[in-house]
């Protein structure tokens, strides 16, 4: 994301090394010429069965401290169940925060300590438009510019990011939870020095920040 200021970042892919949001937002921000909602993308692979209607809390343990996410299975049932499946399978053990942009967002979930992508399940349907907004502390599913391309990578908004919300002319980035404890830890991660590291040309922490594990609390 060369010269990405908060305003100029686009919701590109949050998953690949050179896609703005492939790592998030590599799956996250592309220029706002993003695919319009009227264009029908390929049908995504179905996710696991929807989550229960009870809020779920997950503790994220990192090398810079811990924080807790409260999921919203009522408004984002597909995305939440997808995330919980990865939690239960240990996907988030030893992965890096590979994309950090101060005052915008931090992204993790897909790259191991050697900057290699971990295997993933099929993509899930984009639940943006569920009423949950990309506000400070919101947790969203990273994807590429393709609307229904999210898998395991997720991001946390460091500020209110309305440009990531859907509009009648474009898909947004689906929010499925929020940080309810330890936002100061997320802010520390978000203020880490970044640059070119491994496969990333920019926005990667110069000192590796590790997500040790995600622990289901409820």
Structural description of this entry:
With 218 residues, the protein is mostly beta strands. It has one domain: Cyclophilin-like (Cyclophilin, Beta Barrel), CATH 2.40.100. 10% of the residues lie in helices and 26% in strands. The N and C termini lie far apart (37 Å).
Short description:
With 218 residues, the protein is mostly beta strands.
Give the helix/strand layout.
Blueprint: E1 56-62, E2 65-71, H1 77-89, E3 95-101, E4 105-108, E5 138-141, E6 154-157, E7 175-181, H2 183-190, E8 194-197, E9 200-205, E10 210-216
What percentage of amino acids are in beta strands? 25-35%
Using only CA atoms, what is the Rg?
Answer: 15 Å
At the fold tier of CATH, the topology name is Cyclophilin
The residue-averaged pLDDT reads 83
Shape: globular
User: What's the CATH H-level superfamily name?
Assistant: Cyclophilin-like
**What's the structural domain tally?**
1
SS-derived structural category: mainly beta
Please report the distance between the alpha carbons of the first and last residues. 37 Å
Could you name the CATH class?
Mainly Beta
Annotation field: number of helices: 2
- Count of DSSP strands: 10
Into which percent range does the helicity of residues fall?
under 10%
Keywords, separated by commas or semicolons:
globular, Cyclophilin, 218 residues, mainly beta, two-stranded antiparallel ribbon, disordered N terminus, 8-stranded antiparallel barrel, single chain
